[in-house]
Structures are given as structure tokens and as C-alpha cells.
Amino acid sequence: MFKQHEAPDLASLRRDFLKAAEQSFDRMFGRDGRNGLVTFTQREEQACELGDEVSRWLLGKHLAREECRDPGKVVDCPFCGKAVSEESPQRVAMERRRILTRRGPVEFDRASRWCPKCRRVFFPPR
Asked: For helices 8-29 and 40-64, what crossing angle results, to 10°?
């Protein structure tokens, strides 16, 4: 059951997650309940791989929701502390970042900022 205070986009994200979880279930169990997995090692490997995929999916979606990645959001420069805003946020190129997590690689986009006082490019923290 959804909580009433949940943001509308979270309902869509929840549906996407449940669809991904359903696909993981089908990959584990197949039509016959075994999906060709006979040995314990095969079962463990498949379960761990599917769990890692779900973990990476959750982490990637969570990172995609970070407000600091929005080029239109005002952020403080980490060097001088001055508030920095982008005059044309729609022109800011997004950088694709790939990080290696304990569960494998996760990719996400982030927007850089330029501080006119420091004359330095930075990426908002978090």
C-alpha cells in the first residue's frame, strides 16, 4: 500500500522496481520452478547475481534523484562558499559518471558548476 505523502514519481518508480523484481524472480525460477539450476553453486550464483542487479538498480535510481545533479539548482561553491547558479541550466552538459560499488558498476549523470569568484569548475557534493 502506498503512503499518502509519497511523491507521485515514486509511485512510477515503485512500479518499475516491482517489474524488475518480477523479471528477477522469473530468471531465478523460470516456468518450472528451477530454471535449469541444479547444483547449489548454480543457485547461489544466480541468486547473488540477481541480488546485485537489484542493488545496482536501486542505487542508480537513488543517485538519479539527487537534487545537486540538477544544473538549475543553486549550490554553494566548496572552495569559497559563495552561492553559485547557472544562467542557462539547459545548456549545461551532463557528465556520465561510472563508479564501482561493492555490487558492481553503477552509472549516473551529474552536472558541473562554475564559480565565477574562484574561477573553478566543481561538481556539487553528494
From this structure: 170
